[in-house]
């Protein structure tokens, strides 16, 4: 029983069945000038168009990368290349933003990290701008709790001030509406494997006139912004995923599953850490058992979840959101359940039964 889709959402059976055919279609080099190369280039362009349609951008502003970690680094470091001054971000960003910010600080940039409580209010974000702020980078959906930070109107307000607006929109991709043009976003990062695509493929949306600097140099692919032969199989697989997805019906389905999880957890004495406004794809909950103990016990019974985020799991660090919980004690027992359209109600009921029995067993030892 897999409840860890925010770490990676496994490819569907139908995508897995298509992979052989997609592999044949993707086997040449899209930079080759012969017929096969040109044909593959066209196929990649079609996927660029699909991604652009999903996020409200023209296809020539879509760049394929090796993942969202790279897209985030390219956005931040690429923009900072010939700038100095202040960056406004949040204290609950993914490691690929946070660690890039730490690096930029070591290069002389100043960074303010906003408390997540302030990310629901555009005015507070604007109040924290400084004279020398040149970039705001705030995630769209927090990966540990699913908290959603729409910040309506922020993009327009920033663009009036000439400040670049980047959003790490990985956990929103294909799940929560993103429209980069309507929202005044200049740079946005996405990842294919969080939506049931293959790993090793990210996307950077970069507004045309922005002129960010590449992180490395090579054969000029992706208009020189991200050289290196493209992950052609990953890109064609993403095209197939996007064909099969329907943002609004998927959302409604997942919302129903989320509602069942919420009541189930509450009945078992869990404290919900994700607000009702959070993305329904992620639900953080705390039980009075240390996360690692409960996670391991569940894993032994075939229920797979995360404690916070998978990226932190190996670092021994607590989830980024924990210092900002009203009751920090709840952080000790925090688990993240994350779902997809592949999660069935039956699976949820079975999992709740196993969770209930496991809690009963473990609580005896406390
Ligand atoms: N940002 C967020 C919010 C994420 O959840 C993740 C994946 N854990 C990433 C960035 C990095 O994505 P990738 O695995 O494609 O490098």
Word description of this protein:
- The protein is 38% helix and 13% strand.
- The chain has 366 residues and is α/β, with parallel strands linked by helices.
- The chain has a domain at 247-363: Aspartate Aminotransferase, domain 1 (Alpha-Beta Complex), CATH 3.90.1150.10.
- Strands 1-7-6-5-4-2-3 form a seven-stranded mixed sheet, with helices on both faces. A three-stranded antiparallel sheet has the order 8-9-10.
- Helix 4 (95-106) links the parallel strand 2 (86-90) and strand 3.
- Helix 2 crosses helix 7 (232-244).
- The model has no long low-confidence stretch (mean pLDDT 96).
- 4'-deoxy-4'-aminopyridoxal-5'-phosphate binds at residues 67-69, 72, 94, 96, 139, 143, 168, 170-171, 191, 202, 311.
- The site of 4'-deoxy-4'-aminopyridoxal-5'-phosphate (PMP) has 14 residues, from helix 3.
Topology:
Blueprint: H1 13-25, H2 35-55, E1 62-65, H3 68-80, E2 86-90, H4 95-106, E3 110-114, H5 122-127, E4 133-137, H6 154-160, E5 164-168, E6 187-191, E7 202-206, H7 232-244, H8 247-267, E8 271-272, E9 282-286, H9 291-300, H10 310-313, E10 334-338, H11 345-363
Parallel strand pairs: 2-3, 2-4, 4-5, 5-6
Antiparallel strand pairs: 1-7, 6-7, 8-9, 9-10
Helix pairs in contact: 1-7, 2-7, 3-4, 8-11
The structure holds 4'-deoxy-4'-aminopyridoxal-5'-phosphate.
4'-deoxy-4'-aminopyridoxal-5'-phosphate (PMP) binds next to helix 3.
């Amino acid at each position: 029983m897999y409840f860890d889709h925010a770490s990676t959402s496994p490819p569907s059976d139908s995508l897995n069945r298509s992979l052989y055919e997609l592999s044949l279609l993707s086997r040449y080099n899209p930079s080759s000038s012969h017929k096969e190369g040109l044909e593959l280039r066209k196929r990649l362009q079609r996927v660029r168009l699909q991604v652009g349609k999903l996020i409200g951008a023209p296809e020539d502003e879509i760049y394929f990368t090796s993942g969202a970690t790279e897209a985030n680094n390219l956005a931040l470091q690429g923009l900072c290349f010939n700038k100095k001054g202040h960056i406004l971000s949040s204290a609950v960003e993914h490691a690929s933003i946070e660690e890039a910010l730490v690096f930029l600080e070591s290069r002389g940039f100043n960074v303010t990290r906003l408390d997540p409580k302030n990310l629901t209010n555009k005015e507070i974000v604007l109040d924290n701008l400084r004279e020398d702020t040149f970039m705001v980078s705030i995630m769209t959906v927090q990966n540990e709790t699913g908290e959603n930070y729409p910040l309506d109107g922020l993009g327009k307000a920033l663009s009036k001030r000439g400040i670049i607006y980047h959003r790490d929109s990985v956990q929103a991709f294909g799940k929560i509406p993103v429209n980069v043009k309507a929202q005044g976003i200049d740079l946005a990062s996405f990842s294919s494997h969080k939506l049931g695509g293959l790993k090793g493929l990210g996307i950077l949306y970069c507004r045309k006139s922005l002129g960010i600097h590449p992180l490395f140099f090579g054969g000029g692919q992706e208009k020189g912004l991200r050289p290196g032969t493209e992950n052609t199989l990953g890109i064609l697989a993403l095209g197939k995923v996007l064909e099969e997805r329907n943002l609004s019906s998927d959302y409604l389905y997942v919302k129903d599953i989320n509602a069942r999880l919420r009541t189930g957890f509450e009945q078992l004495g869990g404290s919900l850490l994700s607000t009702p406004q959070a993305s329904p794809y992620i639900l953080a909950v705390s039980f009075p058992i240390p996360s690692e103990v409960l996670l391991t016990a569940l894993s032994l019974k075939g229920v797979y979840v995360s404690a916070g985020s998978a990226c932190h799991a190996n670092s021994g660090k607590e989830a980024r959101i924990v210092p900002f919980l009203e009751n920090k004690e709840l952080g000790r027992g925090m688990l993240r359940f994350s779902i997809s359209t592949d999660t069935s109600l039956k699976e949820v009921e079975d999992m709740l039964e196993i969770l209930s029995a496991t809690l009963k067993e473990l609580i005896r030892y406390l």
